[in-house]
Amino acid sequence: MTPDVFRYENDRLSAAGVPLAEVARSVPTPFYVYDPASALDRFRSLSRAFEGVPHLHCVALKANSQPALLRPLFDEGAGAEVVSGAELALALALGLSPSRIVFSGVGKTDRELASGIAAEVLMFLVESEAELRALDSLAVEAGRKVRVALRLNPDIDAKTHPHIATGVATAKFGIDPHEALKLYLRHREFANVDFAGVHSHIGSQITELGPLAENARALSSLVRELRESGVEIRYVDIGGGLGIPYRGESTPAFGAYAEGVVKPLRELGVTLLTEPGRVLFGPVGALVARVLYVKRVHGREFAVLDAGLNDLLRPALYGAYHRVVPLARREREVRTFDVVGAVCESSDVFARDRELPAPERGEHLAILDAGAYGFAMSSNYNLRPRPAEVVVEDGGFRVVREAETEASLVARELGRAR
User: Fold this and answer.
1) Which of 5, 56, 254, 389 could form an SS bridge with 49, CB 3.0 to 4.6 Å?
2) Marked catalytic residue, from 130, 297, 334, 344
3) What is the tens place of the pLDDT at every residue in 43-52?
């Protein structure tokens, strides 16, 4: 892959040549900071790996929906994978052609289905027979014919955390392959549906190529079987899920990834769709927070930050690992700390038993690899304002989303009571 986006230059943690300490002097913490140019570089590397094969990389907006990151990718030819009506509306508002949008999600409402039909998205990724029937009915009402790919649940172990494994038998996602085959073979029952593709997304933060290649082989076999039965499949969506090295672990390079998933599909003459999210955004973002207090309880040391699980949920949700580093590198004692947040929950912990240069009250720490599923999963728990978002570019930085304020949250709550 590429070198770290956030690295020390003259002992100051920097991104795109901008020391994060300079940002922290102007922007109150906590805040997210991103390097859009690095996200674009990663997208270009991914695209080069798939050269020679008809393809469309549909960026997963659920990972990060910040327009400052999305616009350059859309301009470069990316599509979008959306999972809600608002994500669809955002992609369209950013000028993305609906012919480059796939609409996924296990629980699409009728209103969301209707909005996708009206927009004429490239394809709906359908997760049940009931959804298929609802979509067909709505398409009849709209006088449109819609393209679909049934999402298979192939029961493939993605070798990732259970909370982000989506292609196993116990997951809520997708359709049993045998039932999906029956639905494809009954395609004439759905007059306003074009069964144009097949789809399977087996999970997230996958660090081994084997499960991804196995998924591609399973989809290839299904396409061949369907074509023999008269169902002309034109698109194969292999989902996303490619992991990043949160702990410095080995992950597949884009070239190896492309080779592994393209090989079973190359001779089918289909357009290959992928849904990259974490692999584009994760490494290009960090959460910067200030140390409020350093305390010792029963011999255990804690660094208490002004951020919390409402700002970055991943560690509390499934024990996700993120590197935590100071913005200024200097000689000092290294000790073991739990880096914790300010929210009133015992699970509000960013790092356990982490060896760190002893932090001091008022200094800033960066939680790295937080560009995916960071701000996107933030909330107002404890009635805490969501943080600002900042981008570094052209040797400087700009705030692309202002932090919420306590006053705005209180006004919102009072408005609800009226």
Assistant:
1) 254
2) 344
3) 999 999 999 9
